[in-house]
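Quick log. Single chain, no ligands specified.
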Amino acid sequence: MGMPQAAHDWTVQRVLALPDDGNRYEVVDGELLVTSSPTFHHQDAVLTLAVRLDPFVRSTGSGYLSISPADLELDERTLVQPDVFVFELPGGRRPERWKDITKILLAIEVLSPSTARADRHVKRRRYQRHGISEYWIVDLDSRLVERWRPGDDRPEIISETLTWQMSESAAPFELDLAAFFAEVLDR
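-> predicted structure:
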């Protein structure tokens, strides 16, 4: 269930105090988001993206890739758990705690029916306001990726090759989306 809760006074501290009941809890600008366990295809997409992206990110030496569950605190009223994310290494090395991560370079959500509203609207707007340079929404049903950047009013819709330039000095990452979706959905 990806439905937001009615109360809009949620804080990170309040969410972190919730019992571990198998649900994934996030809070965005005080709005509580509750998500149940993801589907097999969702998790397969997350794993495939992480496996493909990780060597590229490591080769740059300036970022680190991780997957959720992870409690990324953007402020006292926003705690998110992107499915896959890349962050700048704090102090040039891996962090000790999630709270040490201060600059997210890329956030990726794999869309599911229960999370579509939160991923496309609530979280997307918050990621843009926070200045996260790239936010990808992976739509398994449509076999495309929506790419959002901070100033975008509309997403860039990508259905062939997804290219990401992590830094100007590094070669770009390229993902053949037809091959990616075939691997995740057709095998």
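The two ends are 28 Å apart (CA to CA).
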